[in-house]
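Request: Show me your protein:
***
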Amino acid sequence: MMDARKLLAALLAVACLGTAGAQSVFDMPKLFPRHKQALGQFLRAAQAGDLLGAETAARAAAKLFPRDANWHYNVACVCARDNRPDEALEWLGKAIALGFTDTRKMEGDDDLASLRALPRFKELMEEATRLAKDPPKNATLSSALVSEVPVGAEATVEAANTQWDWNPLSGGYMTTLLRPRGEVKAGAEAYRGPCAELVRPWLEANPQAYAGVLYVNRDEDLAAADFKAFPGLTPVLYSEEAVAAGAHKGAANGLFSTGLAPLPTVGNSTMALGRPPFWRSVPRLISTEAGNAAVALRLASLNQLYVYDATTDFDKRFLGDLLIANNPAVILSADLSSEKPDAKAAQRALTELILAAFAAFTPETKAEMLRRGLLVPTVQKLLRESLIGKPDYFSAAAHPAVFDPKAIDAEAFLRAAHALTPATLPPPVTLSVRQESLPRQWVDYFDAATERIADSSLCVSRIVRGRGHTRRLSVEAQAPGTPGARFRWFPVGGDPALIRINPLTENGSLATIEADWRQVPFDGPQGMPTRRVDVACVAVSPEGVASAPVFVSFRWLANERRRYDASGRLLAIDYTAPKEGWRYEDPLLTAFKNWRDVYLYDDDGRLLGWTRTRPGQGEAQRFDAHGRRVAEPNPDGSPKRVVPVTYLPRVIQGSDGIHAPAIELIQSDAGAETAP
């Protein structure tokens, strides 16, 4: 049977070629979750020695992705392992015709060992060698062609210049190959962006400031920046095929590259996504879906900067702060200071201010910033340092989750951008979790999801589900390439009285963060009711240069009411709708539970279990400390017979998810009665 580890290595190696395909490359963002599902089934079957299961998964994926050479090759490998040479050779021929032309791999692959002595195998190797010199023009493969675009002219995302790149561990994304050519012809007087009188002299000294810089709008021009105001800026448009597939809007799903290096890109979108009950802003979408979060992080590391409107999920007149985390991979905008907020105007203003920074950067600084992948953290830091009132950089006031452009001193922002040198660029800083204790599903909490929302290098976020009064996490920060850096941790969201930060190393790189549970929403720094606690970490170089912040976020759920004793021991959780009305909570994070649990302890404080009551129902149910339903108690109340239980979500028909819950969790027995 095939070696699963070798199979995964082979898949990853082929993945680097960007060869996952579908009927169109623009179909892949929607189809990719099914691709990942098929890959998981395939690998699990391979690891278990289940040839039939592996073949079933591979054939299903090959049918779903008829132009993907990888899956055809996988079917060939399974058939060869199962001693069916004719089928194996047929599938291998299909894979080669689709672009799988690595003869060295095929001739050394143990999965194909049974085929090597056959004449047809040798013929196929000759065919692969020939095709490797003239690969098939398949737009979904790595043979996508680079489009040359005159500087300042429109660039189009189309099937011919776009390929799909995927990584089973981090998600998939499109790559559009563009090569801007020529020089900017317009003079500095053509600049009509923010602070024109300040910026034009800089453009006169550096007329090619926007050469090779892309601008992309992803909300169907609802809040499109005036790209013509920035001489030489290249706007990106989407072909009819891309628009028909919906690849042109919402969260960015594509990298723009010359094929050798990413192109610096600024994009924006004011779109809210999804239908009830799964409506959400793009920032909440990114925070709650691992694939989108992985793509956002990768794009940010490759100088692709996106500004997203957060209004839907950051509005004190509506539901307050619904954001899951403070994620510096993207920049969030909202109009927070107007009586009649204009989200589109706010986003346009913030996007154009960021575009203006490219005219402010000196050529040397810009080159070094892009070489090191520091566009996004540099802009993040500049925005925070340029807030009106100049708050202390190591205070909550300097680190809002969402930026209102009216709160930013545009001139100070651009002067700071111009003053940057390669030596004063913010050092990169990354996070990693070192220690935590996660709660037990079906015992400490009942939702299908875990507490872990994100563990990226820029953002660690947790939804607090467990029974504990205090959530604790040990996190390490690093500043690659900045020896001698010191790290400062400080709260920037939530009630500081409920947050404790304990540095464990002399330079502050390792710290334990504790956050206490609280029943009612916090009053956030921007006057926004929030259930999230954010802790920022900033690295400071020996020369005193501070980094952009990275964040640890804890978020408490709105659809539960807890009661603790003085020692922090949980006494009860009430999940039912309160008299004043149901409290909205993201249905992707948690489901409505129509019950109340009261916890039981022995004299030494050890958990014995809990009792569960439901509105309008009679006798309470009893559960033991392992989450099993007590079917029959002993005379002393201890369990005599228990039944394992599970919890399944069901959709509540007709709910919009705003005024009433949309998903309800249903308890169900999952086995027969047994002794404890």
User: Anything to note?
Assistant: The first helix runs from residue 4 to 15. Confidence is low (pLDDT under 50) at residues 1-22, 138-142. DSSP finds 15 helices and 34 strands in the chain. The two ends are 40 Å apart (CA to CA).
